[in-house]
Amino acid sequence: MNTEFIAHPRLQHIGLTTGNAQPMIEWYKAVLGMRLIYHSDNPTGAKEGVKPKATWMSNDEANHRVAFVEFPGLARDPERSKHHRLQHVAFEYRTLDDLLGTYARLKKLGIVPVLPVDEGSQTAFYYNDPDGNSIELNVDNYGDSWTSIEHIQNSPDFARKPLGVQIDPDKLVAAREAGSSPWDIHQRAWQGEFAPAKPYDLRVLL
């Protein structure tokens, strides 16, 4: 048993409270391919008082990646930017094609990002789930964690613009379908070639 050095655990799942779990369940199924693992109408075994419900979901081999705890009457916080909270959760794709394909698929369902950006180290699309939680879908532009870390630590561009440049996902899709490589698309995006017709409001992340 190691009692001297830090063991590095992996992030295994996130837990979210909600006032209405069903829309959340359907959204996470559609967006992330989550499947229902288990649902309980009374996970605490309470015989009286508040009886929360709980749902466990996963999109891979883990027993769950997302858990929802539903409390009756729980509402969104209209002043959440003034309170401590988890700001966003990110999910990473292996390739730009996976990210763009997901964007196109979700757009057909009426689910579109509230902020798409090329951050230099990665291309990221931020979405809001039904409760307003910020969910980021991204791909590493380098395809290499070490190089990506190097970019964040030493790039003057990143120091100048940590949130990167705003992009129009449809323009990225068109460029990829026209034969541009992922790296070429990243470079063109950073040069402003894929800027949206109307700038996005960065306050959506607050």
Quick summary of this structure?
With 206 residues, this protein is α+β, with helices and mostly antiparallel strands.
Description:
This is Glyoxalase/Bleomycin resistance protein/Dioxygenase superfamily protein. InterPro entries: Glyas_Bleomycin-R_OHBP_Dase, Glyas_Fos-R_dOase_dom, GlyoxalaseI/FosfomycinResist, VOC_core. It comes from Bradyrhizobium lablabi. The protein is of the alpha+beta class and 206 residues long. It has 2 domains: 14-70, Roll (2,3-Dihydroxybiphenyl 1,2-Dioxygenase, domain 1); 87-205, Signal recognition particle alu RNA binding heterodimer, srp9/1. Helices cover 28% and strands 23% of the residues. It is built from 6 helices and 9 strands, in the order βαββββαβββααβαα. It has helices at 21-32, 96-108, 145-154, 156-160, 169-177, 182-190; strands at residues 14-18, 35-40, 53-58, 66-70, 89-93, 115-118, 122-128, 134-140, 165-166. It has a 5-stranded mixed sheet. It has a 4-stranded mixed sheet with strand order 1-4-3-2, covered by helices on one side. A hairpin with a 3-residue loop joins β6 (115-118) and β7. α2 (96-108) packs across α5 (169-177). The longest helix is centred in the middle third of the chain and has 13 residues, at 96-108. The model has no long low-confidence stretch (mean pLDDT 96).
